[in-house]
Amino acid sequence: MADISAKDVMSLRNRTGLSMMACKKALVEVGGDVDAAEEHLRKQLKGKMEKRADRAAGEGRIAIAKTGDAAAIVELKAETDFTARNDDFVATAQKLAEQAAVAPDEGTIAATEDMEKLVDNIKITTGENISLGRARRVVGGGDTVFGMYVHHDGKTGVLLAAKGDVSEDTLRQVGMHVAAAVPRPLGVSQDDVPAEMVEKERKFRIDQAMESGKPQEIAEKMVEGGMKKFYAEVALLEQKFVMDESKTIKDVVAPGTITAFYRWEVGEPAE
Predict the structure, then answer these.
(1) pLDDT in single tens digits along all 271 residues of the chain
(2) Are residues 127 and 138 in the same domain?
(3) How many domains does the chain have?
(4) Is 177 left (phi over 0), alpha (psi -120 to 50) or beta?
(5) Integer Cα distance of 35 and 31 in angstroms
(6) Element of type H or E holding 88
(7) CA 86, 88, 94, 99 torsion: positive or negative?
């Protein structure tokens, strides 16, 4: 049997968070190689975690990171809020965001090998059904400014991209607005609001106008006035800033402008 030192057992324990006995057993099984033992445990315990995949992962954390001309937002899911608030889980979510920010693809991205390894590690240390819920990478040009906001409980996060003379601090405040705004913004401008939502709202306004019995000219003005109000409520740039309702978001970011935003909550359906 290989001579297993206490130092190697402690090193493996620090890497995996498992008990001293489990770490020593793994080292014995692979002949004392710490790296091989870690990989052995990862494969062994990942299999056990996969068998628990039917256990709901309804908790988790949103994390955001940026690097160079790109930024990323990710959702790491867990079974319990206790685990989602664990320092190692929070740190892992942030590392995943950092790795997503330098991933080769853009838009919705699949986990890279390094990202999968991070998820496997936190599965081992928590014993829960941990999974990468979503990951998106946003690439901007040299003049793109990214803003980030993650709520204190980690369950809501907002990533914004902007162009022009606008500071990251201002964008962070806009991110706080996006996280809190009711109704939730559906697009940057009225042109970005989903067509099906626009059509549904217009039909509602038309039905209202017809029921009013007003002359057609007045009814048409009622519809257009209603649509203008609708856009002011759901188009981000037209919304009143929650911290100062005398301003719209367009006023807050001027002379710059927002080009994209992503508001994610843990557990909501993917976009």
Answers:
(1) 568 888 888 788 777 767 778 888 889 998 889 889 888 887 777 666 565 555 656 899 999 999 989 999 999 999 999 999 999 999 999 999 999 999 999 999 999 989 999 998 898 888 888 999 999 999 998 889 999 999 999 999 999 999 999 999 999 999 999 999 988 999 999 999 999 988 888 888 888 877 777 777 787 788 788 889 999 999 999 999 999 999 999 999 999 999 999 999 998 877 6
(2) yes
(3) 3
(4) alpha
(5) 11
(6) helix 87-101
(7) negative
Domain that holds residue 92: 59-189+236-265
- Give the E-state strand segments of 192-256 in sequence order: 240-241, 244-248
Neighbours of 82 (CB within 10 A): 12
User: Are residue 248 and residue 121 in the same domain, yes or no?
Assistant: yes
Clarify whether residues 177 and 101 are in a common domain.
yes
List of residues 6+ apart from 33 with CB closer than 8 A:
27
Give CA–CA dist 115/102, Å, rounded: 11
74 shares a domain with 20? no
User: Rounded distance, CA 46 to CA 51, Å?
Assistant: 9
Residue 73 sits in the same domain as residue 163: yes
Coil/strand/helix, residue 47: helix
